[in-house]
């Protein structure tokens, strides 16, 4: 019924945007929150008039800003100091905020960060519960020390530690089984980007990484698009290009699941996110948050990113 109403609104908008807006305001309370910009029509391009944007905003997606400390800092004392500074500078925000810290520091920094409303996650996990897997960390271990989230398939795990899509899929399932919320990282290398294969690579990462994940489970999954060539390099993926890929990801999720499921999945952007770039990124309709690397180690910069102001 909701999709039928969207169709009616779209048709009505073509004739009278103002009328469509009034109808949408009347029916919106009866609809389940589904997606940001559920109806987004750009009119007037063929009539010579300035385009009129009709937008039915029914976002059920809470923005999600995540900081990834990677293999930093060097000691637990430094981690505690960093956590205290981050917690002290955290500004009011409309976003959910989490920090992904090295495994040995999770238990130590969690009370400090959670006291400021910042959740804590792990940077990776393993698909097995226990056993002879030297150096591995299970999802149950992460949960036992208070971790709520876990990064899965970060590009550095794929390239340095040779994680395959099949391994990553196992980690997604294990995280979900043990009650963690996984962030599935996807994205192309510089060579793949220059060959215009970015969407194809993302489709492969999605299809293999989410294999067997149900619609119900997708409510706890976040997808992070991280163009590898923009991670820690200072190279910038412009907001328009990022939005194009994010829209593709949502379209893929629609075809794989359905429109309602796709509308509820948060898609983060990761790749040299800075205080200077975050406002433009977060203004895009399909960018629901950011996965922040180097800037998350600078409390002042991270605080500004958390307090983004969409343009």
UniProtKB/TrEMBL annotation:
<keyword id="KW-0312">Gluconeogenesis</keyword>
<dbReference type="InterPro" id="IPR035990">
    <property type="entry name" value="TIM_sf"/>
</dbReference>
<keyword id="KW-0324">Glycolysis</keyword>
<comment type="pathway">
    <text>Carbohydrate degradation; glycolysis; D-glyceraldehyde 3-phosphate from glycerone phosphate: step 1/1.</text>
</comment>
<dbReference type="Pfam" id="PF00121">
    <property type="entry name" value="TIM"/>
</dbReference>
<dbReference type="GO" id="GO:0005829">
    <property type="term" value="C:cytosol"/>
</dbReference>
<dbReference type="InterPro" id="IPR000652">
    <property type="entry name" value="Triosephosphate_isomerase"/>
</dbReference>
<feature type="signal peptide">
    <location>
        <begin position="1"/>
        <end position="20"/>
    </location>
</feature>
<dbReference type="GO" id="GO:0006094">
    <property type="term" value="P:gluconeogenesis"/>
</dbReference>
<dbReference type="GO" id="GO:0004807">
    <property type="term" value="F:triose-phosphate isomerase activity"/>
</dbReference>
<dbReference type="GO" id="GO:0006096">
    <property type="term" value="P:glycolytic process"/>
</dbReference>
<dbReference type="GO" id="GO:0046166">
    <property type="term" value="P:glyceraldehyde-3-phosphate biosynthetic process"/>
</dbReference>
<comment type="subunit">
    <text>Homodimer.</text>
</comment>
<keyword id="KW-0413">Isomerase</keyword>
<keyword id="KW-0963">Cytoplasm</keyword>
<dbReference type="InterPro" id="IPR020861">
    <property type="entry name" value="Triosephosphate_isomerase_AS"/>
</dbReference>
<dbReference type="InterPro" id="IPR022896">
    <property type="entry name" value="TrioseP_Isoase_bac/euk"/>
</dbReference>
<protein>
    <recommendedName>
        <fullName>Triosephosphate isomerase</fullName>
        <ecNumber>5.3.1.1</ecNumber>
    </recommendedName>
</protein>
<keyword id="KW-0732">Signal</keyword>
<dbReference type="GO" id="GO:0019563">
    <property type="term" value="P:glycerol catabolic process"/>
</dbReference>
<comment type="pathway">
    <text>Carbohydrate biosynthesis; gluconeogenesis.</text>
</comment>
<dbReference type="InterPro" id="IPR013785">
    <property type="entry name" value="Aldolase_TIM"/>
</dbReference>
<comment type="similarity">
    <text>Belongs to the triosephosphate isomerase family.</text>
</comment>
């Amino acid at each position: 019924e909701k999709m039928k109403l969207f169709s009616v609104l779209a048709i009505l908008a073509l004739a009278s945007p103002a009328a469509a807006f009034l109808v949408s305001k009347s029916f919106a309370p009866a609809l389940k929150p589904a997606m940001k910009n559920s109806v987004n029509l750009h009119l007037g391009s063929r009539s010579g008039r300035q385009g009129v944007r009709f937008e039915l905003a029914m976002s059920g997606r809470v923005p999600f800003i995540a900081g990834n400390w990677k293999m930093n800092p060097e000691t637990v004392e430094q981690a505690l100091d960093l956590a205290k500074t981050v917690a002290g500078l955290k500004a009011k925000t409309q976003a959910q905020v989490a920090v992904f810290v090295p495994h040995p520091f999770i238990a130590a920094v969690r009370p400090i960060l959670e006291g400021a409303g910042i959740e804590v996650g792990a940077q990776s996990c393993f698909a097995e519960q226990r056993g002879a897997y030297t150096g591995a960390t299970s999802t149950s271990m992460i949960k036992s020390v208070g971790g709520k989230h876990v990064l899965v398939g970060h590009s550095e795990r794929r390239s340095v530690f040779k994680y395959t899509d099949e391994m990553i899929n196992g980690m997604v399932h294990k995280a979900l089984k043990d009650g963690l919320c996984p962030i599935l990282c996807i994205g192309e290398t510089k060579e793949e980007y220059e060959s215009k294969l970015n969407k194809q690579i993302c489709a492969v990462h999605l299809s293999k990484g989410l294999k067997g994940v149900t619609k119900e489970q997708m409510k706890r999954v976040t997808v992070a698009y991280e163009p590898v060539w923009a991670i820690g390099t200072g190279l910038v993926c412009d907001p328009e290009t990022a939005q194009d890929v994010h829209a593709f990801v949502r379209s893929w999720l629609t075809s794989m699941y359905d429109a309602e499921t796709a509308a509820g999945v948060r898609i983060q952007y990761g790749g040299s996110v800075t205080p200077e770039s975050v406002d433009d990124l977060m203004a895009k309709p399909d960018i629901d948050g950011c996965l922040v690397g180097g800037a998350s180690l600078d409390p002042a910069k991270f605080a500004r990113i958390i307090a983004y102001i969409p343009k």
